[in-house]
Amino acid sequence: LLIRGRVLTFVNEPSGVDDTASYRFFEDGAVLVRGAAIVASGDYDRVKSLAAADVTIDDHRPNLVLPGLIDTHLHFPQTQAIASYGAQLLEWLNTYVFVEEQKFADPLYAASIASRFMDELLSNGTTTAVAYCSVHPESVEAYFMAAEERGMRMIGGKVLMDRNAPEALRDNPQRSYDETTRLITKWHNRGRAHYAISPRFAITSTPEQMEVSRTLVAENPDCYVQTHLSENKDEIAFATSLYPDAVDYTDIYARYGLLGDKTLLGHCIYLDDREISVLAETGAVGVFCPTSNLFLGSGLFDRDRFDRIGARWSVATDVGAGTSFSMLETMDEAYKVLQLQGQRLSPLNSFYRMTLGNARALGLDDRIGSLHAGADADIVVLDSCAKPAMELRMRTVKSLVEELFILQTMADDRCVAEVYVAGNAMKGKARPEAAPTGR
Ligand code: GUN
Ligand code: FE
């Protein structure tokens, strides 16, 4: 398969709008795919000469061809809880999320939402995501089955929670150990699946369950770890009151051995310099979730402080506190959150972050996030003129960087013209089932 279009892929983090060395752009470009992998990418004439004479050509000109987008934090069982009104974090969890997540005890319900969830990611151009499932192992089965059916590289895991939640959503230390261990054995590195050990956050785990998390991480050093950190002021006060020996919120997780270079920490809004330094030293990643942080009124992620201290960060939707599955819409809000703090996010950096940047945050940049030879053929095709207002604005465009900024600011899923997963075009293959009403 030869995918023709205006090809854009990053090789490094852009330092600003003039950093042309950070990316490769081919106005008449192509990506040659054999099976599930990329064989070559670059100028159309050169790449075409490497292909068989009868190669199938998907001609997407004048659309942009990029690596598939990557989302580093969201909640699969909150697909039907997006846009739940009027509450900040703890009240929102208790009022809406802990009600919705109980439905995932039912494997049929879980399977039906998992299918819709994967299709929604794909229609927004996201080919890899890191998601929390519910406390029920059935939800993890549904999640990885739906990903496997579509050939997607997906990361996820069962949340561990044994207090401060309804009875029906609580496991216990032994059960969380046994179920997580069984799920890792079954799913971790099966095909394109990767497991994330997922203690929800300090508030919903007893010290005994945090000890279990420590053991799971020690026994499975190759798995991801995900949790939430420092999102909301009431949450911080509650969490630190439950762990009086810890010097701050970050220290709770540090004490239980949960911080390392495969650890993803959602939000990280109110960290002080000491805490960000701990992330820098351990290699843990702070995950910036702009639509969620605005929606729940949580606060503003201080990207410049992460960069100054040298800590890693990634970007994510955080659906269902996040209000969109679209990484493009997410970067639009990221730009605004940084604007409110006098910080700048260049369009090049946005597109780097959604692709190679997030792939690096996951340590998967050899496989995804760029179009280098040998990479997985996860590819998105973006149409900068998909909406009438965009088409009108695009008539005045003078540069690639300007076009990227228009895409980031105005795009939604209408701009995703095609998405390839492991070399397969998925746009025509989405088969939404009737959604359960849940009523
Ligand atoms: N903190 C603990 N659980 C959650 C969740 O589901 N969403 C968000 N935004 N924060 C959390
Ligand atoms: Fe979250």
From TrEMBL:
GO cellular component: cytosol
Keywords: Hydrolase, Metal-binding, Zinc
Biochemical pathway: Purine metabolism; guanine degradation; xanthine from guanine: step 1/1
EC number(s) from the headed UniProt entry: 3.5.4.3
Origin superkingdom: Bacteria
Signal peptide start and end residues: none
InterPro entries: Amidohydro-rel (IPR006680), Guanine_deaminase (IPR014311), Metal-dep_hydrolase_composite (IPR011059), Metal_Hydrolase (IPR032466), Metallo-dep_hydrolases (IPR051607)
This protein's record includes keyword Hydrolase: yes
Domain Amidohydrolase-related: 64-425
GO biological process terms held by the UniProt record: guanine catabolic process
Transmembrane regions listed in the UniProt entry: none
Molecular function (Gene Ontology), one example: guanine deaminase activity
Cofactor: binding details: Binds 1 zinc ion per subunit.
Cofactor(s) essential for the protein: Zn(2+)
Pfam families xrefs: Amidohydro_1
Catalysed reaction equations from the record: guanine + H2O + H(+) = xanthine + NH4(+)
Family designation: Belongs to the metallo-dependent hydrolases superfamily. ATZ/TRZ family.
Function: Catalyzes the hydrolytic deamination of guanine, producing xanthine and ammonia.
PANTHER family: GUANINE DEAMINASE (PTHR11271:SF6)
Name recorded for this polypeptide: Guanine deaminase
Organism: Methylobacterium brachythecii
